[in-house]
Amino acid sequence: MATLFQKKLSEKCIEFSSKPGDLVFDPFMGMGTTAVAAKGTWRHFFGFEINKLLKPIIMQRLREKKLGQDYRTLTEIRKKIIENAKKKYPKAYEIYMKMQRERLI
Ligand SMILES: C[S@@+](CC[C@H](N)C(=O)[O-])C[C@H]1O[C@@H](n2cnc3c(N)ncnc32)[C@H](O)[C@@H]1O
User: Fold this and answer.
1) How far is the CA of 45 from the centre of ligand 1 (A)?
2) pLDDT tens digits for the chain (105 residues)?
3) What DSSP state is assigned to residue 84?
4) Which of ligand 1's atoms lies nearest the C-alpha of 30?
5) What pTM does this model have?
6) Is 96 helix (H, G, I), strand (E, B) or coil?
């Protein structure tokens, strides 16, 4: 099964490179992690998988994912990134806030 890291990575790639309603294409679907992430973030999806044995697994995972269940607005994503940066990189966060106050970014 796909790890939580793989799921989150697929989700982030989709969030940063497309908008809700866009079409996500994965030519090598495997277990369908990308398609599942697309459905969870309000994207259409389309893909190929040569191994027929994986089809029922992909279909089951897609059935279990509700349309848009993981959707976050860009504002929410940005807020989360900034919160994490504040914890992980306090010095860089300070510089970022200073630049924002001085309207440099
Ligand atoms: C590493 S997995 C892909 C993982 C997937 N992108 C995801 O999001 O979980 C690679 C898959 O590509 C499939 N594959 C390899 N050659 C292919 C081909 N010519 N057409 C379609 N699928 C292919 C393999 O069967 C395998 O399941």
Assistant:
1) 15
2) 678 888 899 999 999 999 999 999 999 999 999 999 999 999 999 999 999 999 999 999 999 999 999 999 999 999 999 999 999 999 999 999 999 999 887
3) H
4) 27
5) 0.86
6) helix
